[in-house]
């Protein structure tokens, strides 16, 4: 098996690390020839333009881009070399904003969010202040095995009633390791076993969801059969989980690089455009989620954050928000990558949208 690079695209000087280069690549192919409608035109065709947020139910914060892994499909272009990290002041501001915004869920993502030096203290403060809030941590699992200082994270998650959402692209080692690195599958199973031991997937308040994403240029499908396969394989390893979520690969950052390098870009974009589903478009996550970047900038979603597409309207930083209701009075900023959310059953951080 060819091993994955050990550095982010950015550290390798990859052209597609820059948002402008990503847009240029994305907007070529059938969009340039007029064969495919731009995403905004597709929305109009279905009477869905402009997309408008309904409310802020989910406050998704990206606490930094550092990660112990360098997955092939990472839309963040995360890796051990990334240094961006949310400051203590901003974490305190997030804590305040959770109450003011009326959000019912805090969704903590990265990178590997557990690598933020204040991760535990922040989660403890939020849990103590908002006992009813749902707190999600997007854990890559291998971080639980990476170093002695992370070994007791399963116990910490359980004590804080954190919902753990973890990527396990497939129920077999070969496909998982191809996307996430050699040995990741076995390491993930060890971490999952420890989560099961502390009660995840078995006790009502300890929810563990796994995320499947396809290996190649196609959409997730046959989810029922797939979930049954995951359950059977993992049960044999003494691992329990709640549900399997499917997320389509977003054609930006390292996945865009992979698509281009492997000659699959046009085929994948065609799958996404042809698969446009108006019902999925109605439920896209930007209608109920606000994304906060490590530096406080606000975005419609984590994907827009990586493409540096700021929120429409005058208020673009958490530091500047005074009126939370007014923040919802805006149009979502869309571009052609949005087809990644609206094909087939739809795709979001919470799974299907249709
Ligand atoms: S996909 Fe997740 S685990 Fe993999 S490099 Fe990106 S942030 Fe890290
Ligand atoms: S990429 Fe972001 S802005 Fe575009 S449809 Fe998906 S969630 Fe909405």
Say what oligomer this is: single chain
Which kinds of small molecule does this entry bind, naming each only once?
A: iron/sulfur cluster
Radius of gyration: 19 Å
Overall morphology: globular
Unreliably modeled segments:
none
CATH class: Alpha Beta
Total E-strand runs: 8
Mean pLDDT: 95
Strand order of the largest sheet: 6-5-4-3-2-1-7-8
Quickly count the helices: 16
- Write down the domain tally: 1
What composes the largest sheet? 8 strands, mixed
Q: How much strand content do the residues show?
A: 5-15%
Cα distance spanning the termini: 36 Å
- CATH homologous superfamily classification: Aldolase class I
Structural class, by secondary structure, is alpha/beta
Output the CATH topology.
TIM Barrel
The assigned CATH architecture is Alpha-Beta Barrel
Q: Would you mind describing this structure in some detail?
A:
This protein is α/β, with parallel strands linked by helices and 354 residues long. It has a single domain (55-264, 289-334), classed as TIM Barrel. The protein has helices at residues 19-26, 29-33, 39-45, 88-101, 119-129, 143-146, 153-159, 173-180, 184-197, 223-235, 253-261, 265-274, 278-282, 302-306, 324-327, 339-342; strands at residues 58-62, 105-109, 134-139, 162-167, 208-212, 243-246, 289-292, 298-299. It has an eight-stranded mixed β-sheet with strand order 6-5-4-3-2-1-7-8. α10 (223-235) links the parallel β5 and β6 (243-246).
